[in-house]
Write a structure and sequence with these properties.
The complex is a heterodimer of chains A (449) and B (303).
Chain A (H helix, E strand, L loop, with lengths): L7 E5 L9 H15 L3 E7 L6 E5 L3 E6 L3 E3 L2 E2 L7 H10 L4 E5 L4 H12 L3 E6 L8 H14 L4 E4 L2 H11 L6 E3 L21 E6 L8 H14 L3 E6 L5 H10 L6 E5 L6 H5 L4 E4 L8 H8 L3 E5 L4 H4 L5 E4 L3 H14 L5 H11 L2 H17 L5 H9 L5 H22 L33
Parallel strand pairs in A: 1-2, 1-7, 2-4, 7-8, 8-9, 9-10, 11-12, 11-14, 12-13, 14-15, 15-16
Antiparallel strand pairs in A: 3-4, 5-6
Helix pairs in contact in A: 1-13, 2-3, 6-7, 6-11, 14-15
Chain B lengths: L1 H11 L29 E2 L8 H29 L5 H22 L5 H26 L7 H18 L18 H18 L5 H28 L1 H22 L1 H25 L6 E2 L14
Antiparallel strand pairs in B: 1-2
Helix pairs in contact in B: 2-7, 2-8, 2-9, 3-7, 4-7, 5-6, 6-7, 7-8, 8-9
Classes of the chains: A alpha/beta (449), B mainly alpha (303).
């Protein structure tokens, strides 16, 4: 068995701290746990504002903020070969053995994976999102994904629905795709010390107020629930283009005293908002996994959610009420949750979540995928080109061309700056014992602790 | 506890479940794939099977409109060549207007005297405005060469045909709930610009008035009239379209041999080749739906 082989991993994604979201969280916690398991982890992302260069985070997690500014929705401009020199330098400097890319619409991730394959590294890819097959955007995205996944060693998805989706989109054999869900930091999301009063029921919604997160559904649901139950209050956290509609709804039905709009909630304050409620409502129209549900359940809230994407797999049936994504069904779901509420013990739910999800478990499972990837046989350029050629009549040839150009450019860069001339970065080792129990926090602008 | 018991029995007889919680499932790897993989996938749920005759019949609407536009171009070129004088052009305008109203009266369900008066009043305003503006149109493009005007007109007409809404009418009918789309509005506007450009080449302002009125009548109301006929009787619509196509072809044959060939091949392409092509490529249609699709909202969003 090679189970105890130590890897040197480069995580690549456009999405990382200081941004917040499912992917950012996943990369951060996974890296922390992998560091604890004794692997070396380096993160590569693009510059955020004036945050560029090398930074260190908690437990010596090294982050390269590559000086490339995002141009649309936090993604860098696709340049095909432009990122090769810097990716190569980082790979050699940090003596990386494996590259792990995250998120299908991160251009930086696609490019880094392509360069890593050109240079003969083993590559793992994690897909965090779901895509349809009907609209133009999805069709293009799926082709790009097919290009990247044609040559990855292993792929990871966050739920079984996401795995089915990824297999369909990319044509990978299902055995190459692993399902490793997200997890939740249960130490950070603890229920309130004393139980909330039962005479009033507070329903919490925390999501970006956009179409995909079901803000329009929320606009229909809130007045109806308020009409049926006089002891229900809503707390809505989050901001977005649909906030105006929610506020209009509040005025129209004069619910100002029963619907509280908090605006954007910083991640550090999510827990304090969550513990002020009894029920968590998620109205998303599409969701690969939904970490928000985990955070709410960890705080001891009963969840009502739409039955979309990977949501039904996330929690056992007695911890979540699922409803179809239409207003009347969702109102029924909330009614059901209100009836179930007296039987819910937040502390018990929290302890149960602790046993169901842990980032350490995620890291151990990811480690096995890495071992698997390292066992994959090496392939020559010609073998890989033949695999690209099968991707489509026109696309296949285009992909081959891109790979050949990338290969030639790599040869050029090798001549221009030989690997021996690149200085290796020294490893920072931290004593591991005393940080076992401390809750993780982002070490803002921290140098090595 | 009930749940505890359930979990115990599962520990004794591990069975793979399609869930994400609870860590790695005993005895199964994370890449385990069983029969339930892709069981919720639905393929080709919304695909309509078409047959050739039906598609050809439907394509007649397109050919019909192509012919109407071709006839307008014909009238333009005859007027520019001074083959039609101003009075006969005005007579044609009146004839078309009367014919259009007649068709609306005979086929429309909700035409009342009140509505008719409303229409007549509106048209009076419109005609007066146009008459007052025609001297301006007359001198609008005096400094631009005729070649540029023709090239621009052809381009605008192509845009018009490309964006035209062939399914219904471009103007909003009184009482209809469907609003015209942006595309059909752009299409209508390009046709209006094209007619104004052509009119500005004419010798007198009476000509200008007559030709702009004629073009606007056709571009604005022909889709309305034809869709009324189509709703009234599909058979009548078909025969009328075939007659129109033949008439147009004959007229073009007299005008210009090259244009005739062009129009003829276009009509054949639209009514015969395209439907056949559509049926042929039908078998490549592959639609995938499943739990990963974004849920559709079952109500309208009122903004």
């Amino acid at each position: 068995m090679m189970g105890h082989q130590k890897h040197r991993i480069l995580m690549v994604s456009d999405f990382f701290y200081p941004n917040f979201g499912g992917v950012e969280n996943h990369i951060y916690y996974l890296s922390q746990c992998l560091l604890k398991l004794g692997h070396k982890v380096v993160v590569m992302t693009h510059a955020y504002g004036n945050r560029s260069g090398v930074r260190y985070m908690t437990s010596g997690l090294k982050v390269y903020y590559v000086p490339w500014n995002p141009f649309l929705m936090q993604c860098t401009l696709p340049t095909f070969c432009g990122t090769l020199p810097i990716v190569r330098t980082i790979l050699i400097r940090e003596k990386i053995s494996l590259v792990h890319g995250h998120q299908a619409f991160s251009t930086l991730c696609h490019e880094a994976l392509m360069h890593a394959r050109t240079m003969g590294y083993k590559v793992v890819f994690t897909d965090h999102s779901l895509y349809g097959f009907s609209d133009m955007g999805s069709i293009h995205m799926n082709k790009v994904l097919q290009f990247t996944l044609a040559d990855v060693s292993q792929a990871i998805c966050v739920s079984h629905t996401s795995k089915e989706n990824t297999v369909l989109r990319s044509g990978l054999p299902p055995e190459k795709v692993f399902v490793i869900p997200n997890a939740v930091d249960t130490a950070m999301f603890k229920p309130a010390a004393e139980r909330l009063k039962d005479n009033q029921i507070v329903i919490v919604v925390i999501s970006r107020l956009v179409y995909r997160k079901g803000a329009d559904l929320l606009v229909e649901v809130i007045p109806e629930v308020c009409r049926q139950h006089h002891n229900v209050r809503f707390i809505v956290g989050g901001d977005g283009p649909k906030r105006v509609r929610l506020e209009e709804m509040r005025e129209k039905h004069s619910l100002q005293d029963r619907v509280e709009m908090l605006g954007a909630v910083p991640h550090a304050q999510v827990r304090s908002v969550l513990i002020s409620g009894h029920v968590f409502l998620n109205c998303s129209l599409t969701e690969a996994f939904c970490i928000a549900i985990l955070e709410a359940a960890s705080c001891g809230l009963l969840t009502v959610s739409t039955r979309v994407g990977g949501v039904p797999e996330v929690l056992p049936d007695d911890m979540i009420v699922l409803a179809e994504p239409d207003p009347s069904n969702l109102v029924q779901g909330i009614n059901k949750a209100i009836i179930m509420l007296p039987k819910i013990d937040p502390q018990a739910m929290h302890l149960r979540m602790k046993s169901l999800y842990s980032w350490h478990d995620v890291a151990k499972r990811t480690e096995r995928v890495y071992d698997c990837a390292m066992r994959c046989s090496d392939q020559s350029l010609l073998e890989r080109l033949s695999r690209y050629l099968t991707c489509g009549a026109w696309a296949g040839k285009l992909f081959c061309l891109v790979m050949i150009i990338d290969y030639l450019f790599w040869c050029l860069v090798k001549l221009w700056q030989p690997a021996e001339e690149i200085e290796a970065a020294p490893d920072v080792t931290l004593s591991q014992q005393h940080c076992e129990e401390t809750p993780w926090n982002f070490n803002e602008d921290g140098s090595v602790r | 506890m009930e749940i505890g018991g359930e979990e115990n029995s599962l520990l004794m007889h591990p069975k793979w479940r399609k869930v994400a919680y609870g860590g790695m499932q005993r005895g199964f790897n994370d890449n385990h794939t069983d029969d339930s993989f892709l069981e919720d996938m639905v393929t080709n749920a919304n695909v309509v099977q078409r047959d050739l005759v039906k598609v050809m019949q439907d394509s007649i609407s397109i050919s019909q409109y192509l012919c109407i536009v071709a006839l307008v171009v014909l009238v333009w070129s005859y007027t520019l060549g001074s083959n039609i004088n101003c009075n006969s052009l005005l007579l044609l305008d009146l004839l078309l207007l009367g014919l259009g109203f007649l068709v609306l009266l005979l086929t429309g369900e909700m035409i009342s005297l009140n509505l008719l008066l409303h229409y007549i009043l509106n048209i009076t305003y419109f005609v007066t405005g146009l008459y007052a503006l025609s001297p301006i149109y007359h001198t609008l493009t005096r400094s631009i060469s005729s070649d540029s005007i023709w090239a621009l007109t052809v381009l605008l007409l192509l845009v018009h045909l490309f964006l035209h809404d062939y399914t219904g009418c471009t103007v909003k009918v009184q009482g209809s709930r469907k609003n015209p789309t942006l595309r059909s509005n752009i299409s209508l506007n390009t046709s209006i610009i094209a007619s104004v450009l052509i009119a500005s080449r004419l010798p007198s302002r009476h000509h200008v008035f007559a030709i702009v009125l004629f073009s606007l009548q056709v571009f604005l109301f022909a889709p309305l009239v034809t869709s009324c006929i189509k709703r009234h009787s599909f058979r009548l619509h078909t025969w009328l379209s075939v007659g129109l196509m033949l008439a147009t072809l004959v007229l073009f044959f007299q005008l210009n041999w090259f244009l005739f060939c062009l129009l003829f091949s276009l009509l054949v392409f639209v009514t015969v080749v395209c439907p056949y092509w559509l049926i042929k490529i039908q078998k490549y249609k592959f639609e995938i739906n499943g739990p990963w699709d974004e849920a559709k909202l079952c109500f309208d969003i009122r903004d």
